[in-house]
Amino acid sequence: MLWSGWGDPARAADLPEPIRKLLGDLLGVRPPRSEAAALDEVRLPPVTLPAPFLAELRDLVGDGHVRLDDETRVRHTRGKSTPDLLRMRAGDGSDAPDAVVLPACHDEVLAVLAACAAHRVAVVPFGGGTSVVGGLVASRRGFAGVVALDLARLDRLVAVDAESMVAELEPGLRAPRAERLLAAHGFTLGHFPQSFEYATLGGFAAARSSGQASAGYGRFDDLVVGMTVATPRGTLDLGRAPRSAAGPDLRQVMLGSEGAFGVITSLRLRVRPVPAERVYEGWRFASFAEGSAALRTLAQQDAAPTVLRLSDETETMIGLARPGEIGTSSAGAGCLAIAGYEGTSAEVSARRERATAVLSGLGGVPLGTGPGRAWEHGRYSAPYLRDALLAAGATVETLETAGFWSNLPRLYDAVRLALGASLGSPLVMCHISHVYGTGASLYFTVVTAQTADPLGQWEAAKRAANEAIIGAGGTISHHHGVGRDHREAHAAEIGELGVEILRGVKDRLDPEGILNPGVLLG
Ligand SMILES: Cc1cc2nc3c(=O)[nH]c(=O)nc-3n(C[C@H](O)[C@H](O)[C@H](O)COP(=O)(O)OP(=O)(O)OC[C@H]3O[C@@H](n4cnc5c(N)ncnc54)[C@H](O)[C@@H]3O)c2cc1C
Questions:
Q1: Is residue 282 within 6 Å of ligand 1 at its C-beta?
Q2: Sheet (strand 99-101) strand order
C-alpha cells in the first residue's frame, strides 16, 4: 500500500486528458505549489514509551513483533481519508504511534491490553488502515504513549461449518485472502467494498462496512453470527445461534464499536456458495428521481439484484460509475443504473427477469452488459484516481449518509447545498449505493480546486455537510463509521442519553480508557 496514497504504487492512475481539461475550465484547478513529501521527510514525534514497557511487550509477542522503525510508524499513521492523505503529503506524521505491536492470537491481544492498561498506554487496533473517518488516531493526552495493535498475524481461516454455512475467520485477514481461502471450500462472503483490496474482516465488523454487492449478500454486520472480543476486562464470546431472544444482542454493541470497546479476535460469518454466474448490466433513467423510484420499487417488491446502484445526472455525465471511461460517458443524458445478478444460472435468470420487468415498467432503458462490464472492471479504480487529482491540485473526497425514501430528496438537496455554500462551485456527484425496502444510502463525491489551505477548506465543507445531514434527518454514516470525524454529529444523532449509554459500556469494558481514545466517544 502506498504510504501517502491509495493502493499498489504500480497501479497509480494517470489523469485522463478530458478530466484534466474539465478541472481547469470548470473548477479553476491549478497545480499545487509544493511537491508531496518523501517518506524520509515525514516529521514523526519522538517515541515516548518507557524501555521496561517495550521490553514487556517484546516478551509477550516476540522481539520482531514490536516495531519502532520510522517506516512502520509512518505506515500506521491515520487512515486513508483525503485529509489523512493531505497531511501525509505535507509530511505531517504527528499522529504516528510510538510503536507497532503485532500479536499472533487472542491471548497475546489480551496480554498486550493488560500491559497497556497497567502502563496507561493508548491502543489503536489496526486492520487494513483504510478508515476514512479518523478511526486510527488516538488522543495522546493523559497517556504514556500510543501503540498501534496491528492484527495482520491473526489471519487464519479457522473452521468451515459447511452444513450451517458459517465460517470462523480471524480479523486480520484482508478481504482478497479471505475470499481465496473460502473459495477453496466453495464459499464466498460476498463482501466487496471499494476498499476490498486492503481492508480486513475485523475492520469491516468494527466499522459496520457495506459492500457493492450488499443488496444481495447483506451488509457485513448482517454476515456476523458470532465473535470473540478481547477487552481490558477479559473476553467476550458472543453468538451461539442464528437468532436469539436471550436479552439484548451484545454483538450489536460490538459491531461498529471501532476498537473503542475491545479488539475483535475472531469472527463467525455467514458464507454463501461461490456464484456460478455473474451478470452486470446498465440501465438508463431520464432523471435521478425516476431512477430512485424504480430502485425503491425493486427493493420493496423484494426483487433487488445482488448489485444495485444509481448515479445522479452529474455522476453519469462525468462517467464516475465507470472510472476506466471517465469523461467519455456514452450513456447520454439522464442517469445510469447498474444492476448485477449473482448466483446459479437459474437464480440469475429468475432475478434478472423479475427486475427487468420492474425496471422497464418504470421508465428504465436497458443498455446491455457493456456498462455493467465497465463498472465491474473499474469498481476498485476510483481511489487510485484520487491520488492523481490531489497531485493535480484538486481536492476530492467522498461522504455518505442514508435516509428513508420519503426523505431522500430532502437529504440529497441539503448536502449538495451545504457543499456548494462552503466550497463555492464544486463538482458534486452522487449515487444511491445501497437500497432497502424503507430507504437508501446516498454516496457523494466532491471535487473542488485546492485553496492555499486545502485541509481547512475541506474541514469547513465537511462540517457544513455533517450539519446538513443531521438537520435533514439523515444518519451521519451508512457505512464509513464514526471515528473522530463524525463524533460530534453522531452525538447529535443519538442524543445525550445515547452517548451516556455508550460511555457506560466503554467505562465497564475499558476502565482506563486506553482503547482508541477519542474515537467514537470524546
Ligand atoms: C478508497 C476507499 C474505499 C472505501 N470503500 C468502502 C466501501 O465501499 N464500503 C465501506 O463500508 N467502507 C469503505 N471504506 C472505508 C473502510 O475501508 C472501511 O471502514 C473498512 O471497514 C475498514 O477496514 P480496515 O480493515 O481497513 O480497518 P481499519 O481502517 O484498520 O480500522 C477501522 C476502525 O476499526 C478499528 N478496528 C480495526 N480492526 C479491529 C478489530 N479487529 N477489532 C476492533 N477494532 C478494530 C480501528 O481501530 C478503526 O477505528 C473505504 C475506504 C477507502 C480508503
A1: no
A2: 66-67, 99-101, 146-150, 122-126
pLDDT beneath 70, residues of the chain: 320-332
Q: Is 6 in the pocket of ligand 1 (CB under 6 A)?
A: yes
Residue 360 CA to ligand 1 centre (angstroms): 37
Long-range contacts of 315-319 (CB under 8 A, 24+ apart): 315/429, 315/430, 315/431, 315/445, 318/19, 318/22, 318/427, 318/429
For the stretch 59-117, pLDDT in tens is 999 999 999 999 999 999 999 999 999 999 999 999 999 999 999 999 999 999 999 99
- DSSP 8-state symbol, 334: S
Query: Ligand 1 within 6 A of 395 CB?
Result: no
What pLDDT score was predicted for residue 331? 47
Residue 321, classed as helix, strand or coil, is: coil
pLDDT for 325: 54
Q: What angle do CA 442, 444, 445 make, to 5 degrees?
A: 160
In whole angstroms, what is the distance from residue 391 CA to residue 75 CA? 20
Give the strand pairing for 99-101 and 146-150: parallel
pLDDT of the residue at 322: 54
